[in-house]
Amino acid sequence: MDEMTRVETEDGELIERIYTKNREVVPSSTIPDHVKDAFISIEDQRFYGHSGVDFKAIGRALYRDIIAMKKVEGGSTITQQLAKNLFLSNDKTWMRKTKEVMAAYYLERNYSKEEILSLYLNRIYFGEGAYGIQSASKHYFNRPVSELTIAQGALLAGLPKAPNSYSPIDHPEESMQRRNLVLSQMQEYGAISIEVMKRMQGSTLAVEQGEDEESNWSNSYVDLVIDEAAEKYHMSRDELKRGGYTIVVKMDPSIQQVAAEKMREGEFIPGSNGPVEGAFTLMDNETGALVAVVGGRDFKHGDLNRVQVKKQPASVIKPLAVYGPALMQGGFQPYSVLSDRKQTFSGNYEPSNYDGQYDHQVSLYQALVDSKNVPAVSLLDQIGIDYAKDYLDKLGLPTNDDGLAIALGGLSEGYSPLQITEAYSSFAREGKVVESYTISKILDRNGEVIHEHQPREEQVFDAETAWYMTEMLQTTVEEGTASQGDYQKALAGKTGTQQGVGGNKHVWFAGYTPDYTGALWMGYDQAGEEYSVQGSSAYPSRLMKDILTSIDQIQPLTASFDKPEGVEILPNPIRLPDLNQVTGTLDLAGLATLRGTLQWTPTDDERVVYRIYREEQGEDVNVGEVTGEGSYKVSAFGIFDETYYYVVPYDPLTQLEGEPSNRVSLNWNF
Questions:
Q1: For 401-419, what is each residue's pLDDT tens digit?
Q2: Which of the residues 41, 315, 378, 537 is marked catalytic?
Q3: Active site residue: 43, 108, 228, 430, which one?
Q4: Higher pLDDT residue, 467 or 72?
Q5: Active site (annotated) includes residue 315
Q6: Which domains does the chain have, with CATH numbers?
Q7: Averaged pLDDT for residues 633-662
Q8: Distances (CA, A) of 459 to 83, 563, 569, 616
Q9: Would residue 43 show up in a list of annotated catalytic residues for this protein?
Q10: What is the C-alpha separation between 456 and 470, in angstroms, rounded?
């Protein structure tokens, strides 16, 4: 028999049912005797005495058919009804009746009475889409068949003759009359006493339907489950609809509902041509299990599941295609200095920084935090495109493109949010990338496990590289391009903005906490000048942080990342100050000599080195330096000398100097 497939969590919580016919087969042992008696009483009181056909009932029906000169009464036994339901059509012809009798005899020879009754109760239609006694019990009374009362069992026994006419929902009076008739037949059959019959006939219908689940919060996830079952386990949607499987999934319903609600109601980037769409994924870092998937802002079954749609990744690709591989090469570290000047690369490729600002030189760390384009392209040019593509292959991000535009996500095809999520998880998992999945296991209708997820992971980056990327991407979230929005616990991530004509094509945020890795995409399904988003990647950054904050309120998330053993802490970047208020004072050092003191306000970062220069013809002289202090004493010089000094901040991490301060004149004014 066709039986619905259940999609449920590992705790047994039902998420959705997949079916053509809403049927849940139950064993005979779970069906109470009074429910069985109700059906036998109204349909076939000689069920246990005949061999599949009740000739007395057939004779009575035949007599009535002759009197009416047409087929008006069936006289079929439960076995015959089952035979017709299993093998035959509903045509009221003598040939069909003959086949029905033959099939009934076959069933009686090969199955016990209990098996036939169980097949019958699990097979028949009860109206309103409910097939089988279990589905009918849950539909009309919101309880399993094992908990049905005598009156409720009698009501269900009265439905199969005319499910629409006797519906307790649409026709309560007719339903009550039919139920009371069944109760009378039960008393006549000897299943209940007269007292019980009268008491039950005086009771209400006691219909209690479950809440109408019109919400589509789980639809994206279940559609992905169906796709995964087909791709990994070669189980078609049609097979799932009729196979009676139990699919155990890794969804966290509370997180899924939060994500679906926020994607539907949260702040989205404005667009040029109607509402902008979006996609969201969240994956458990330890296992690769997808705990939440939202394929659209108001996703319904069969819609385009955008978590699987490939889009150009923009700057989200930089950590994966450029910075991570560069750190693995050995010649680069977070404070390596990169070129940041307007330039043309091979193939006449001339990238620009998004803000049009250039620092001439910048650390790898700062280039990532500020999402500078030219340093990323320059670095890819140095490490080699083929070298970078090898890492993309290992991360599950293959590409046929071979230009430097890879550094900025300018790809011919692009990647899906699911692919980006898997790739970013490598930084959260000490360099190991893991395959994402929704299905933990699949059980057949007998409860036997027929498929089970087998985890697959690959070491792509070493633990040091993964940790350095985590530290840099945390800074990106705190004070870089992903700083928009508020989330109080550990989060590392990167934004991406794909530019277009008249606006941006789409925007990204991809990142991870110690617990989960996720991606959030916003944009249009269509391409073209008339479809553009009017805003920056601040929108997905804010929404991602909003979702994480809500999740944290439901189940507290980890507050900080754990550094891998044997890996050194990456020092925070040094921000060199602008020194424009350096002053100088003089003291007598002797009869004809002076000593000067330069003073300035130092930054709070005590690691900054301040180099003091004296102006000289030809080349200025570095006369000394101090670390973390705001003053320097100049050596004695002649009372009639006029000397100029200035201070330059110096970053010991990058070994780069900042901008010189104002010039200070130290001379004796008579």
A1: 999 999 999 999 999 999 9
A2: 315
A3: 43
A4: 467
A5: yes
A6: 31-201 (1.10.3810.10), 217-242+249-311+416-460+483-572 (3.40.710.10), 312-412 (3.40.710.10), 583-666 (2.60.40.10)
A7: 86
A8: 59, 17, 21, 56
A9: yes
A10: 23
